[in-house]
Design a protein that fits this description.
This protein has helices spanning 16-20, 33-37, 56-62, 71-92, 94-99, 113-119, 122-136, 145-152, 160-174, 186-202, 207-222, 228-242, 262-281, 306-310, 322-325, 332-351, 360-368, 370-389, 396-416, 421-426, 430-444, 464-481, 487-503, 519-526, 529-546. With 547 residues, it is mainly α. It folds into 4 domains: 4-62, CD2-Gal4, CATH 4.10.240; 70-106; 113-281, no CATH class; 353-546, no CATH class. It is found in: Nucleus. Residues 523-536 have a biased composition (Basic and acidic residues). This is Zn(2)-C6 fungal-type domain-containing protein. Its main location: nucleus. Residues 537-547 have a biased composition (Basic residues).
Length: 547
């Protein structure tokens, strides 16, 4: 039988260095072992009898292309192959990966100078983390603060490049918006996308890469970068599924495999809930579009206490399900997860009743969604009471519930074929009217309702959920006015439109579709100065009340 050596890829002739020093060359590609051991460039001849000491001019004349590989390049190439083999085994045969205890492969920890300029120093990482955790603590707490600092500030921690990527996306998220309409964050976004593609292709799979992808998707949603935002969320869904995050939703202690602590399980669930939420938010404009993720069930586990999560303390046995969460107090992010479940049910109901049909179909839709509307309305009342008890002014779950109610209302108008202002007013739901009134009170009085804390600092730092809620509310009043609103409706539209203009520096799509709402709205969008002054006065009052 042939020896194993005959099956490897070898050069036809000995390398020039071995021939010159009369050494036995093993002829392996891309470099022989002797040259690697001696840190010497390894060059193989292209024809028999080639003289070792060839000048560059002679090489060009003879068409010789030396094949050389330095030891450092060889190490990186060997690491690249090893990383991909181990990652492929984990993806194709997960049972073999766990049974063999392969573990994550070692990775190249080198960081490009362009990236190190932003997050290369520990002080930079600490400052970015402090801003980030303050900005996302109430609506997107998917990164464990204690774990992040412990790993990112440790120069020998595993998955170093993934942690640096996460820190870079944190900086992108916290970067201030431009006032003159030119997005100064665009070069940083391009740098993030380039580094993300490199890390995703070469680093072992980790939750940090997925967390970075989530914040990239949030930036793209805010800046109306489509279809990139839609594709990014789909990538997040596939990546999370490959990591097995969807399985952790209904398993209290994970998948039974070693290597995941209780805090890691909680972090996995939180990231997956964030993916579920973004996937459904992107389908608001077209509820019939297929989702990239399956709907959570009543048996899915909710996020635990936010403070315990950030401090790294979590017991898997304390987790509660969606069904139990409607009767117990949950964390702020747990409430957002429950609202995401209700939004998924809303999209599912709308998809099962395509429009327009009218007649009996519209009646069936109204009856079919009656219980869902009551649940959304009751849940808003419940979470706002919990928010008041906690002396907080922010309620992200309410924003999602309001958006779900507005989706049901808009689809009902399509079902009934409402063509006049009177028909629209006669077919408006009680829950929709209550939601609109609550949001208008919140917009006029910063001490009432659920206010997003970042408003008190910078108007452009509003969360995506808050901006979407204001936009959907404005669209509801535009529909009720139907081009000729009464005085009260016109005043509410002016207030909400002014807030949208203030938010435009951060959310570029805030007023795009409202120009179709009639002459009054179009005129307001062309002359937004008075609205901006009103909104800025509201934000100033909020800041004073917070202080």
């Amino acid at each position: 039988m042939d020896s194993p050596q005959s099956y490897s890829i070898c050069a036809q002739y000995a390398c020039l260095y071995c021939r010159q020093h009369k050494r036995r060359c093993d002829k392996t590609l891309p470099a022989c072992k002797l040259c690697i051991r001696r840190s010497t460039p390894c060059t193989y001849p292209r024809r028999r009898g080639q003289i070792p000491a060839l000048t560059q001019d002679t090489q060009k004349a003879e068409g010789t292309k030396p094949i050389s590989l330095t030891p450092s390049d060889t190490t990186i190439a060997r690491h690249y192959r090893t990383t991909h083999v181990t990652t492929a085994i984990r993806f194709i045969e997960p049972s073999v990966y766990h049974d063999a205890s392969l573990g994550p492969p070692s990775e190249d920890v080198s960081i490009p100078s362009s990236i190190a300029a932003h997050v290369g120093h520990p002080d930079q990482i600490y400052e970015i983390g402090a801003k980030f955790f303050q900005a996302t603590s109430l609506w997107m707490p998917i990164v464990c603060r204690k774990r992040f600092y412990a790993d990112a500030l440790n120069p020998i921690s595993p998955n170093r490049r993934a942690l640096i990527l996460l820190a870079l996306t944190m900086k992108l998220y916290c970067a201030p918006a431009s006032e003159n309409g030119n997005d100064t964050r665009w070069p940083l976004y391009q740098l993030v996308r380039t580094f993300y593609a490199d890390v995703e292709a070469t680093a072992p799979m980790s939750v940090h890469i997925l967390q970075a992808a989530v914040f990239i998707a949030i930036y793209e949603i805010d800046q109306a970068i489509y279809p990139s935002a839609y594709l990014s969320v789909g990538t997040c869904a596939r990546y999370g599924t490959a990591l097995g995050m969807n399985k952790l939703m209904t398993r209290r202690v994970g998948d039974g495999k070693p290597g995941l602590s209780g805090v890691e399980i909680e972090e996995y669930r939180r990231v997956w809930w964030a993916v579920l939420m973004l996937d459904r938010l992107l389908n608001i404009g077209d509820p019939g579009r297929p989702l990239a993720t399956e709907d959570p069930t009543f048996d899915s586990f909710l996020p635990m206490n936010d403070r315990d999560f950030n401090d790294g303390m979590f017991r898997p046995e304390d987790a509660i399900t969606v069904s139990a969460g409607f009767n117990q107090k949950t964390s702020l992010f747990g409430g957002l997860a429950q609202a995401t479940y209700l939004l998924g049910q809303t999209i599912k109901s709308i998809s099962s009743f395509p429009s327009p049909y009218g007649g009996s179909q519209a009646v069936r839709f109204e009856e079919h969604t009656a219980q869902l509307r009551r649940t959304l309305h009751a849940y808003v009342q419940m979470v706002e009471k919990w928010t008041a008890v906690r002396k907080l002014q922010y309620c992200p779950a309410s924003a999602i519930c309001y958006i779900a109610l507005f989706l049901l209302q808009e689809h009902h108008w399509k079902q009934t074929g409402a063509a006049t202002a009177q028909e629209i007013r006669n077919s408006i739901f009680f829950e929709t009217k209550s939601a609109c009134e609550a949001i208008c009170i919140m917009a006029k009085d910063p001490d009432v309702g659920c206010i997003d804390p970042p408003i008190s600092r910078v108007a452009g730092e509003l969360s995506t959920l808050f901006r979407q809620m204001i936009y959907q509310t404005t669209a509801q009043f535009v529909m009720v006015g139907f081009g000729d609103p009464d005085g009260d409706t016109k005043n509410k539209i002016e207030t909400l439109t002014g807030i949208l203009h203030v938010m435009q520096s951060r959310w570029h799509l805030s007023i795009l579709d409202l120009s179709k709402g009639g002459p009054m709205v179009s005129d307001r969008l062309r002359h937004p100065e008075s609205n901006q002054d009103k909104a800025k006065a509201v934000f100033k009052r909020i800041g004073q009340s917070k202080r």
